[in-house]
Amino acid sequence: MLLGIALAAPVGPLTLEMIKRGVQYGFFCALAIGMGGMSADALFMALIYLGISHILTIPAVHLLLFLFGSLFLGYLAYESVKSMVHSKEIDKTHIPYSKNLVIKCYLTGLTIALINPINILFWFGIYGSVLSESTQSGSLDHILVQTSFIFLGILTWNVIISVLAKLTSFVLSKQLFKWIHGFAAVLLMYYSLHFAVEFLRAMLAVYNG
User: Any transmembrane segments, and where (predicted)?
Assistant: First the structure.
């Protein structure tokens, strides 16, 4: 469970999006972002367990991950800037909520996690090690229990972030709201440019190789 919390705790694109959506739209939208990320984590775990992690060694897969990761995070940075420029006074008594908005947040979280190369390599490295150790010392039931507690840790962290984002919305001023979106935009653009550079490096490696 502590491993799950440690995996979810670092501030990355997913956490930034949870905070931003939670402040703007409330608890359920922030949690939906996190649940989308957890769905991607479950897919990665299944791929690792099935032993098909070798697909990450394919150069074309590397290129696509870095390219789509850069483009999508750049789009999120643009959305943050747009929200910062056109932000209105926050209504602390009524935060807009709808089922479609929650679904959209879930899909956003899923997309961020699926195309984030750092997230993918992190899971295949960390969980791959955990799985390797578990298969040597325990049964399938033991592996499922360990995996369940990792997910419980991630869910716990996501709930904490969602609650804090919701509580923060009650004391936010318009100016502070702008600063949050501005900070998110800067970090998201950093990740976007980082993946763009990695994409160019991978292209050069393929070209020279």
Answer: 25-52, 58-78, 101-123, 143-164, 176-197
